[in-house]
Design brief:
heterodimer; A: alpha+beta; Helix Hairpins; Immunoglobulin-like; Cytochrome Bc1 Complex, Chain D, domain 2; 3 domains; five-stranded mixed beta sheet; 44% helix; elongated; B: mainly alpha; Cytochrome C Oxidase, Chain A; two-stranded antiparallel sheet
């Protein structure tokens, strides 16, 4: 009777195997593209195989008993209830197995913690719900930028079909050179986040007030994707990490282009902009930065409503203060360091002229710059 | 027998004012089942949203409220009170005592629970919504960035903590003072032993939890900065305090489950429990170790390497006493005369699935590998194997095992077995694929996920609906038993069951052991 049930159950498990075997359904950890990752993978497999063997032995004994020591077979129960020798054995043997596991685990852990002699330092800061990357070693102006989720709201809310890298795509990825020991200095601006890319074997919490260290030496060029792994609020599931590992030459070229782009942005900030230009830039910034909390048409949500709000319709300086410095003790962040002066000017102008807020006010990048200075 | 035999009072006052351990035990059990259904409903919302990629049913913020409340309600509302209920019913009957040592406090420790949970559940209807920071409520997400309802959450935790501490003091006082003559410590049934040790854990760590939430309260309302880096505080301090409570909490949940299984497996093996003394020592060792391993939940916070190594080694050690327990249970079955009534099926289900959860626990203890496992669905799978297949399966086994003694009626065995098989299959379809998606890189506590996780998530959701639905069968079976089950009158309902609770009449009368029984030389545990 029971045997039959077990067979049925095994049948159910087996029939689900073809499903398991589909290529897109990864069932195991990836060894990734670093030496450490391969070591961690080996360690994972070693411990898992030891567990599986012990499990098969233990369950084997149990199922033997279930099949052969059944009351329905008319067996007479034995009455033994202790054996010092056996009990000492099954305390001591597992202990030595654990010692054997601890040896490779310790050596791998020590390697993970060896942060010395990094060739490139990158400061990673977690924000609700995006990452900021700053290259610390670059001579001259440091290169820094934010990396936001690139998946559209339409894909998330099922009105458009989902792309291949749904939820794992960003507007601007982190770029690192291969065969280089890159050190990540990880912190956060608001709540705790955790920066994880499985294939480069780095997961470290980003904690406000702390700077954690981790490192990686990627051996293969490619695009590696990960996510925030510490619950950080409503959009925790929507702050991916994308890393492009490129050749050294490509990296240097990218760095030079990035620096030139920052310089031209700086120059552009002193130019007066038209209302149309500010509005179209402002809409893009709003959709990327503000919409999650303030709603697609400024109706509010986690954050207050912008349509008809006393701030958006009131004094421009108050509006700039709230946007640049944030509101302490609330989820409204200080965006002054997150947005360029152009973006800030554009989004404030947009908020004051969209959603029925027809103030006609125009805020120029220069206004933002002078507000920031004092 | 004494001349003071009297039955329960009539009407609602019977339940409001009762000091009877059986009435209070019954109320705890029903209350925890109601919470199990409520927490289960939250889980169904979670699994329905995760049925497919994309946001379909709820908003991300509400999803987080569901994961938070699911965890809190299941841990503090379903599992913990259910075992307290079991302790109330059984400990006096197992040690030959007429009642708990502190019956009035017993009434109070139950009756503050419903208001506590009402307070917690009411946050769902408040502006800003219910707590949405996970059942681990890490600061500063749970302080500076929390909805205003967090204050209600804090006081709810205080109330639940008080209830647990009072319940534990009562159990310690009862076991220490109320044992029948001849019932020495090393004759206590294992369920009593595991509860005695659990009660000490509770008394030790619930105040730590109360401290943590009080510090949150101070940070939120009174301008302190315990957990705010901007004010000179430390967000990691919160995690150390929380897990100093939280890790023993895991054993608070599982030790009574060990006790239950240690009663049931010998009964249906018709053979004494193997290695009674080593079971007691293993339980005590696990309890001791539970205090010194907390930071293995925090491998990724950036501890110094020496700290990581210490917590890794200490955590791995827990495998030794846990292994001893599993080996003892299997040796108890070895060369017994086994039969497979529903309580035994759930106990064997516990044994197999809890052991799998133990193995993944060992994998998680390996710090460098944990950098890949941490906060993924692999962890979710692990702790559901120990919490659901561990604690909940053993609790279910306990209800089937002792229900005939409590009610004098036998449950429907076929329906019980069907309940087991649906639960077992549904549970594994839900949680086994979560190991896969976790290893493949799916973080926990996300309302939406990348497309490569879609198939396993759908499988997981289907399993969850099956497992959830099977609990309705359980409820039906229990009610049908109470109302119209076949009557049993044998004192020893199960031929292999041993212990004092099987020497009182069936159904157990309102008052038992008003005259203490004599416990002979033979062990009272099986």
């Amino acid at each position: 009777m029971l045997c039959k049930k077990i067979m049925v159950f095994a049948g159910i498990l087996l029939s689900s195997l073809p499903w398991v075997a589909q290529a897109q359904n990864q069932v195991n950890m990836s060894p990734g593209v670093t030496e450490i990752g391969a070591e961690i993978y080996d360690l994972h497999m070693l411990i898992m195989i030891i567990c599986v063997i012990i499990g098969l032995l233990v369950f084997g004994v149990m199922f033997y008993s279930i099949i052969y020591h059944r009351k329905s077979r008319g067996v007479v129960p034995s009455q033994f209830h202790e054996s010092t020798k056996v009990e000492i054995a099954w305390t001591a043997v597992p202990f030595f197995i654990l010692v054997a596991m601890a040896v490779p685990a310790t050596s791998t852990l020590l390697e993970v913690y060896d942060n010395d002699e990094a060739e490139l330092d990158i400061l990673i800061t977690g924000y609700q719900w995006k990452w900021r990357y700053e290259y610390l070693d670059a001579a001259g102006e440091p290169v820094a930028f934010f990396s936001n989720l690139a998946t559209s709201q339409e894909e998330i809310y099922n009105t458009e079909s989902k792309g291949e890298n749904y939820l794992l795509e960003v507007d601007e990825p982190l770029v690192i050179p291969v065969d280089t020991k890159v050190r990540f200095l990880i912190t956060a601006n608001d709540v705790i986040h955790s920066w994880w890319v499985p294939e480069i074997s780095v997961k470290r919490d980003a904690i406000p007030g702390f700077i954690n260290e981790a490192w990686s030496k990627v051996t293969e060029e490619g695009i590696y994707r990960g996510q925030c792994t510490e619950l950080c609020g409503a959009y925790h599931g929507f702050m991916p990490v994308v890393v492009h590992a490129v050749s050294r030459e490509e990296f240097d070229g990218w760095m030079a282009a990035k620096r030139a782009e920052q310089a031209s942005d700086l120059a552009a900030a002193s130019v007066e902009m038209s209302l149309e230009a500010l509005m179209s830039e402002g809409e893009a910034v709003y959709n990327g930065q503000c919409m999650a909390c303030h709603g697609a048409s400024g109706e509010g949500g986690v954050g207050k409503a912008i349509a008809g709000s006393s701030i958006a319709l009131g004094d421009v300086n108050t509006h700039m203060d709230v946007s640049i410095r944030g509101v302490s003790g609330t989820a409204m962040q200080a965006f002054g360091t997150q947005l360029s002066d152009i973006e800030m000017a554009a989004v404030i102008t947009y908020q004051r002229n969209a959603f029925g807020n027809n103030t006609g006010d125009i805020v120029q990048p220069a206004d933002v710059a002078s507000y920031k200075q004092g | 027998m004494g001349a003071h035999h009297h039955g329960p009072a009539r009407g609602i006052t019977r339940w409001l004012f009762t000091t009877n351990h059986k009435d209070i035990g019954t109320m705890y059990l029903w209350f925890s089942f109601a919470m199990f259904i409520l927490g289960g409903a939250f889980a169904m919302i979670i699994r329905a949203e995760l049925f497919q990629p994309g946001m379909q049913l709820v908003e991300p913020g509400f999803f987080n409220q569901m994961t938070t409340l699911h965890g809190l309600v299941m841990v503090f509302g379903a599992i913990m009170p259910s075992f307290v209920g079991l302790a109330n019913w059984l400990i006096p009957m197992m040690i030959g005592a007429p009642d708990m040592a502190l019956p009035r406090m017993n009434n109070w420790s139950f009756w503050i629970l419903p208001p506590g949970f009402l307070m917690l559940a009411s946050t769902l209807f408040m502006e800003g919504g219910a707590p949405a920071f996970g059942w681990t409520f890490y600061a500063p997400l749970s302080t500076t960035y929390a909805a205003p309802s967090v204050t209600f959450f804090i006081f709810a935790i205080h109330v639940l903590g008080m209830s647990s501490i009072m319940g534990s003091i009562n159990i310690i006082a009862t076991v220490m003072n109320m044992r029948a003559p001849g019932m020495s410590y090393m004759k206590l049934p294992l369920f009593v032993w595991t509860w005695l040790i659990t009660a000490f854990l509770l008394v030790a760590v619930m105040p730590v939890l109360a401290g943590a939430v009080t510090m949150m309260l101070m940070d939120i309302h009174f301008g302190t900065s315990f957990f705010s880096a901007a004010g000179g505080g430390d967000p990691v301090l919160f995690q150390h305090i929380f897990w100093f409570f939280g890790h023993p909490e895991v054993y608070i949940i599982i030790l009574p489950a060990f006790g239950v299984v240690s009663q049931i497996i010998p009964a249906f093996s018709r053979k004494p429990l193997f290695g009674y003394a080593s079971m007691v020592y293993a339980t005590a060792s696990i309890a001791f170790l539970s205090f010194i391993v907390w930071a293995h939940h925090m491998y990724t916070v950036g501890m110094p390497v020496a700290g990581e190594l210490y917590f890794m080694y200490a955590t791995m050690l827990i495998a030794v006493p846990t292994g001893v327990k599993v080996f003892n249970w299997i040796s108890t079955m070895w060369r017994g005369a086994l039969s497979f009534e529903t309580p035994m099926l759930f106990s064997i289900g516990f044994l197999v699935l809890f052991t799998i959860g133990g193995f993944t626990g060992l994998m998680l203890s390996i710090a460098p590998a944990d950098f890949q496992y941490h906060d993924t669905y692999f962890v979710v799978a692990h702790f559901h194997y120990v919490m659901v297949a561990g604690a909940v399966f053993s609790m279910t086994a306990a209800v089937y095992f002792w229900l005939p003694k409590w009610t004098g009626r036998m449950y429907n065995e076929t329906m019980g077995k069907v309940h087991f098989w649906i639960s077992f299959v549904g549970f594994n379809i839900t949680f086994f694929p979560q190991h896969f998606v976790g290893l493949a890189g799916m973080p926990r506590r996300v309302p939406d996920y990348a497309l490569q996780f879609a198939d396993f998530n759908m499988m997981s959701s289907i399993g969850a609906f099956v497992y959830g639905a099977s609990q309705i069968l359980f409820l039906y079976n229990v009610i049908a038993t109470i109302v119209a089950g076949e009557k049993v009158s044998d004192e020893k309902v199960w031929d292999g069951a041993e212990g004092l609770e099987w020497t009182v009449p069936t159904p157990a009368p309102y008052h038992t052991f008003e005259v203490p029984p004599k416990v002979g030389a033979a062990p009272a545990h099986g």
